[in-house]
Amino acid sequence: MGKLLIVGTVAFDAIETPFGQTDKILGGAATFIGLAASQFGLDSAIVSVVGDDFPSEYLNLLKSRNIDISGLKIVKGGKTFFWKGKYHNDMNTRDTLATELNVLADFDPIVPEDYKDAEVVMLGNLHPSIQLSVINQMKKRPKLIILDTMNFWMDNTLEELTEVIQHIDVITINDEEARQLTGEYSLVKAAAEIQKMGPKYVVIKKGEHGALLFHKDKVFFAPALPLEEVFDPTGAGDTFAGGFAGYLAATDNISFNNLKNAVIHGSNLASFCVERFGTERMQDLDRKQIEKRLHQFKALTQFDIELR
Amino acid sequence: MGKLLIVGTVAFDAIETPFGQTDKILGGAATFIGLAASQFGLDSAIVSVVGDDFPSEYLNLLKSRNIDISGLKIVKGGKTFFWKGKYHNDMNTRDTLATELNVLADFDPIVPEDYKDAEVVMLGNLHPSIQLSVINQMKKRPKLIILDTMNFWMDNTLEELTEVIQHIDVITINDEEARQLTGEYSLVKAAAEIQKMGPKYVVIKKGEHGALLFHKDKVFFAPALPLEEVFDPTGAGDTFAGGFAGYLAATDNISFNNLKNAVIHGSNLASFCVERFGTERMQDLDRKQIEKRLHQFKALTQFDIELR
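The joint structure predicted for all components is written out below.
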């Protein structure tokens, strides 16, 4: 069992979907990652920042999941990062209606002493300089550094992003972003190009079309579970990353075979996340529901053609 | 081992992709279906029509694959159906540059006597009245009737299409067409609606994103093999259908488990089809290459999470 260090946003989200809308609710990449990873019963810590408008009930929720929040800075008089977005009917595209960086604008991450030897580091979607700063604070090279990012950082901070990518083991990125980062339309070629940039493993997230894991000449695919309804996609990618990182930290095994399992666990947890607004579904999820759905994943993908 | 009856177009195609272009080459749904199904070493027959401009070398190719072409009418003085299309850079969209129905305009299908008791009938993409006429000529109800169709028939002959759908067991259709046919965006809901229309099994083809098989509350997913390059997608859907139908006829087993295997075999063959123009790759494909790629499909999808 390894320790998992998480860096990412802790935020307020306001979400509008065809099914309804929310006021400010709990959100942020680190929040979704932490809640997903906590399903594996491990020791984890979040490095992030909020304002003093952040409710203590949310802090208590994180603590109740055995998440160390000593690295979650609360800025007195500051306001928490806020994102407001609206999803279109197909749920695959969204408009950002508001982004208020607030305390995130001056965020200087401080890794808690206890987590400077964490075996697994999950760098959630955030400014690449912050991601790099966390890596530089580690006492020894973690066994596995996983980075999630998005097109915004490619558009605005490509140099910093390219630098941090050199220092990581796994990148999780969506299909369009993989194409943007490499100029290759074929995901096979894009994944090969990205491996040349640093990471040994490339996970390409395709939303409702599943996720691909690439490593040298190996490739593994996990479908997304076909759902009757996607209620709110917010946090699904972070939940995938949290399940992936959490499973690897909990099992302390970074073989390709175990990374395959991690992709399945990540996809499994993400399939719950989208069933309700924000973190709602992740808060009341239990082990039994998770196991039941893993059986569905097996039924969905496993076949028995005999081969020599 | 069952017999497989195939109805569909036998045609000339002229194809333009970012990689090059062809003159008139061998094409047509029944051609691709027949070539794919022949990999399973079964008895099959094609019901279709061509003009006397159709080269005897193409006829010989079909015969060499143990495909009975006594139901392939050659119209004296007639011209073979011709389609010309151009694919865009992403290979997912194409423009039809020319469609010359020619002898297809008056096609009246005649099922050979020997195949009126075929166990499996594969109705390739074609006018639904022709598909229905073939069903009506069968001496006894086949064990399995599979239908492939496309949005063109929904736009222009919805009533006839709806009627033939009532008489079939399996429909293969792409994701957008499933949505168009049912008005449901969720593929899970669309598949449930289509099952109410007649077919017990619904296969939704998602191109590079794989294929889903639905039956009651069961669902199975086969990914498309991630390829470095898709050279020419023409015929990939037909090849999938041919592999699916051919495997089921050859194994004479229509359990859900065997339909899963059939979806994998169909996806496997389709992954070859797109590697070269038209039927080129399907012509020189051998058993060894097919088996090798089935191993890749296993590696791509099989995982070993132990569950209670």
